[in-house]
Amino acid sequence: MNRRVWYQTHLFLRILCATALLLAAAVFSACVERSVERGNTALRIGDFDRAVTNFSKALDDEPANRDARYGLALAYYSIAEDKERLKLPALDMWEKTVNEFRILSKVDSSESISGTYSTALFYLARATLYKDGRANVLPLLDRSIRLDSANYFSYNLKALLFANLGRVDEAKKIYAFIVTKEPKFSSAYLNLGNLYWAEGDIGSAWDIWSMGHEALPEDAELSRWTRVAEDSLGAMVRAGEL
Hints:
The chain is mostly helical. The chain contains eleven helices and no strands.
């Protein structure tokens, strides 16, 4: 009889403990979800500092929470964008943004974050160069391109760096690739034309700029440089150089 009572009491206590653990887990999960929900609300209305606070709180409790990690990355991204609009240093925010995406990529192996992660890497590379023009940001740009092969801003910046390093032929190939894939990318036309202009190849510069002007007739810079090249070619014809 005593053994039966002991067994029933022990079973009751085990059930009670299991129930308590389930309740605690449910309460814990509800707290994390509430923090994520508050973070998303703050993010939606542009209260980015409060979004950071709430997403960080959720991650303190559950570091692998995908929605909290993504929300925190977006909050840092938005703060960095605001700083750039105000012409304020944003390098620290882009570093935080990229770090959150790096961690998130271990939690979320899908490609759903690739585009935004790629863009953040481009902005980090650009902000790094603003601070130190000699910094090697090519690894950042290569990672950005691997994540999103259509990120032509990263290609364009990579070509600029190649040109500065004397790797002009490689830069030309990248610019040509960009305008082939994205005919409305004005910077690639301008930069490629500049390379030919610097080499004294006015005809090729005019070819590129006029092609860009045809694709983007409203672009003032392409219009201006097309005219400059036309004037130079005209002067060369009059001088008998062509």
